[in-house]
Amino acid sequence: MSISDIWKQLVNMDGVITVVVNDGTRPSPAEQLSALHPALAGRVRFLFATGTHRPVTMEERKKILGDLYADDVTAESNVCDDGTHMYLGTTSRGTEVDVHRWLLEGPVLAVNTVEPHYFAGFSGGRKSFIPGASSRKTIVQNHFLACSLEAQPGRLEGNPVHEDLMEAAEFLAKRTEIVMVNGVYGIDSLFCGPYDTSFFQAAEVAALNCGVSVSERYASLEVRPGNNLDVSLYQAMKAVFLWESVVVDGGELVLAAGCSEGLGAPQMERLLSASSASIAIPRSPAEYLLGDHAAIRLNRIRSRIRLSFRIGIDMQRFGFSVPPSGCEAVVENAGFSYPLYGSIK
Asked: For 294-326, what is each residue's pLDDT tens digit?
């Protein structure tokens, strides 16, 4: 489906259209949709898929929406704790799916980007709704599944997080009309259409575009997240989780990022401290605290390699060492790419 086909579909939709877009920590193809403006004028509102993140700023709104932005546009960020989310059902894995009320008040146009994600396989697509536009309870229950060893970057089949997200998105699709526009990081093409088929098309291209062939492991490697992921340690750590596997046992991995917003999430202090010791794997969502999956992964990494940081934050208080002056190799935009494991000797 092309942008012109989307335009025709939007024209025939009744009522106010809710456009779900990425928050300020992710690239967004929303401004590429300026051609849709005639179809959207006066009948659209924007929902920023912030999940548990902070609300977007006015400056970020303008940057995300581009030509679609106007001072009087109706827009708000998802607030996961505001108690207004609507229940859709419970997935087979036990996730109680609550979504932002706007998603049930008329047609939905979801606009996002698809790139590697360290536990959902790929970002974008169905993630516009969960965690993007859902309650904290829903996010916690879904993210509990990230404790599984099957939740890996670039993997969709058999990935419990992804499969749970698709089941939840199906609940929404039965209640409202959804059109999706998926971009792929690093290319201009857009994949438009139903929430499921357009996502899989984009993910297939993202796997080719973002997968990096690695012929051997590194003794020392520096990763730089790229784009907006260096805004905080919470976001920047995604580069570590995507690339740690290509460092030899006992080797060095360095994360270099600006982290202007510091740690970036209230749970970061706890998970950084917890990752220095052995961590019990939660057996159910009731035992899981948001971020536990990251603490578990970080503990595994710290037990295998040396991890250090160039981020302007005192990380020695969490037991991390001082970074070396330089590394054998550097990966730029490491938060938007991942190594092709099969090619590593």
From this structure: 999 999 999 999 999 999 999 999 999 999 999
Q: What tens digit of pLDDT does each residue of 102-154 get?
A: 999 999 999 999 999 999 999 999 999 999 999 999 999 999 999 999 999 99
With CA atoms as reference, report the closest residue to 318 among 327, 328, 307, 329.
307
User: Do 188 and 304 belong together in one domain?
Assistant: no
For 210, the token pair is 């973002």
Pair of tokens at residue 158: 């058999």
Which residue in 235, 179, 239 sits closest to 210, CA to CA? 239
In which residue are the tokens 């580069």 written? 239
Residues 35 and 142 in one domain: yes
Question: Do 196 and 232 fall into the same domain?
Answer: no
The whole-model pTM stands at 0.91
Output the six-digit token pair for 120: 């959902």
Residues 220 and 257 in one domain: yes
